[in-house]
Amino acid sequence: MAKSNHITFSVLGGGGEVGANCFLLGVDGHQILLDCGTHPKKEGLEALPDFSMIERTPDALVISHAHVDHCGAAPYLARLHPSIRCFTTIPTARIMDRMLHNSVAVMGAIAKERGIQEYPLYEHKDVNFAMRGVRGFEFSAPALLPLDPPAEVTFYFSGHVMGSASILLRFTDHVVFYTGDMCETDQELMAGCSPLEKNLRVDTLITESTHGAMDASGVRPYAEESERLGVAVAGALNGGGSVLIPSFALGRTQEMLNILARLQEEGKVPRVPIYASGLGRAIYELYDRFSEYLKQGATLRPLEQFGRIGNVWHPNDVKRLIDKPCIVVATSGMMLENTPSALIAQEMVRHTHHGIFFAGYVDPDTLGARLLRAEVGDMLQFMYGHPPQEVCLPNIHRFHFSAHASRDALTRRIGRLAPKNTVFVHGDSDAIDWMRSHTETMTRAYSPTLGQTIVIGD
Ligand SMILES: [Zn+2]
Ligand SMILES: [Zn+2]
Q: Which ligand is nearest to the CA of 159?
């Protein structure tokens, strides 16, 4: 009898968007869940993947990295399916723990501020319970998943943030490669993704498509962008102002702190104090602990070199902080309302001499994007339930540091792996459309959206 080479692929989240990434793979009678994130732009139960698509407890959950759009719903899933086993890399297991406990605190705060009844979606005890089922693996070391028949998993270094991996799953008759979030070029601290073995053959590739709609002009070399940032930061500081750099806690914060410290050491930026906010500091400690996974030759400065921000909820503390020229790296990266970066910006925009420099992607629906679009004289609300603040500050810009692969690198990887099937996920529809139309001759393309189950194969 001919072997069946069919697999099924269900999108619980993250199809046709950068959402609550969660994909259910059916192969060899196994049900494998790839990632289990929360949606960055939705709230309450809406932020969860569509768990109603899961009919029985999956045999394994495999996590690519610790950004919450990839792991933020794992404690909720563990409550629904207490016996689920979770596999990831050694650093991601530790970073996930910190990120998820922080999510409990953030959801608790939002519940209070805005009365969202469903929050928190899980408690600290649920995080502890979920983390008990997590096993961390070393990179590039094939391991057996305890399934019947067994399947082999290998985590490849994906170059995105500390611990991030692309995941190779070898089933009896089918090889699946999931890129997770990947970056082919070096950053300040992270090396680009590791090369794959020359003879690696893949039946089905599941690839991120984040930059599918961005041509080469939108992707600036990291080193060039660091220099541009240095000039802007020096300009604001030399004018007597302070600088705010809104940054994601995992990845961008550690990168920015070390870029800024290097620019100071090179004499390109005045040696003013650099401050970092809470969760970014906690993750920094884990970058230090797992420093063997950093780029060879990367310098991770001691965390003590960077000051603590203090209580941003108190306007006088913020005033005191930015009164003397300094640089502040604070979450959130897209400046969501009521986060440290929003509270500091609220004070900064009252003046004309500071600088606010975004370091990466800013979603068009966020406060960060509204601030980038704002003209002097516009009114913007930084805190829920508080009156809007007039923007007097003209020096607000965006820099393009990316921790994602360019579309050309993604296309090259498809050419190199020559998979029979490619599933495009983790990208807006125009990004996925570009990727599909430029790889049509190389592979059979699929781009399922939320709630869809597709059958892949001959
Ligand atoms: Zn990510
Ligand atoms: Zn992502």
A: 1
Interatomic CA distance for residues 88 and 95, integer angstroms: 11
Q: Which residue has the tokens 């082919």?
A: 184
**What is the C-alpha to C-alpha distance for residues 165 and 139, in angstroms, rounded to an integer?**
8
Q: Are residues 299 and 274 in the same domain?
A: yes
Same domain? For 37 and 103 the reply is yes
Looking at the fold, whether 371 and 418 belong to one and the same domain comes out as no
* Tens of pLDDT, residues 134-193: 999 999 999 999 898 899 999 999 999 999 999 999 999 999 999 999 999 999 999 999
Report the distance separating Cα 20 and Cα 70, nearest Å: 7
Task: Tell me, yes or no, if the pTM score tops 0.90.
Answer: yes
359 Cα to the center of ligand 2, angstroms: 16
Q: In the 8-state DSSP scheme, what is residue 72? A: T
**Nearest ligand, CA 158:** 1
Around ion ligand 2, residues with a beta carbon closer than 5 Å are 69, 181
Distances (CA, A) of 363 to 86, 233, 289, 369, 433: 30, 23, 32, 6, 19
- Indicate whether 1 belongs to any domain: no
CA of 187 to the centre of ligand 2 (A): 17
Per-residue pLDDT of 309-357, as tens digits, reads 988 888 899 999 999 999 999 999 999 999 999 999 999 999 999 999 9
Query: What is the distance in A from the centroid of ligand 2 to the CA of 348?
Result: 30
CB 71 within 8 A of CB 181: no
* Coil/strand/helix, residue 133: coil
Ligand nearest to the CA of 14: 2
